[in-house]
Amino acid sequence: MASLGVRVRNTRRFYVVNPTNVSYEFSWIPQGNNNPCFRCATPKGLMLAGKRCEMIFEFTPQQLELQEMFWYFKIPHFQVSQLFVFVGTTTEPRVALDRASVNFNTLMIGTKTSQSISLINQELIPFNFVLDKTRTILI
């Protein structure tokens, strides 16, 4: 699963087909260390005979590093247990300011001036952003 930025929920949906003429229950069981970046939205359910069932996993990274988590897909009726590994990668979005610095030139004390800068998004999807005045660094 790939994420463009951190704290972004990414959903992966896929289908599992029941080719038998018997309906059965299934479950996804986390294996090993629990990774809070991954969540199974369909941890258990009933697969109807001859039908398909949608499985949903979510990946919400909190940092820019490779993440993984193992899950067992179990079908107790047939004593089936298959290990799956879910891997998530995160990349920084290509968003930047149109200039590296702003020069306000020489100013008299008490005067005001302003200049504009633009935030350029080079990705295909829009991003929300917030400027936090409490974290602004003035040099």
Automatic annotation (TrEMBL):
GO BP: any one term: axonemal central apparatus assembly
GO cellular component, one term: axoneme
Protein name: MSP domain-containing protein
Organism: Phytophthora infestans (strain T30-4)
Gene3D superfamilies reported in the protein's UniProt record: Immunoglobulins
InterPro entries: Hydin-like (IPR033305), Ig-like_fold (IPR013783)
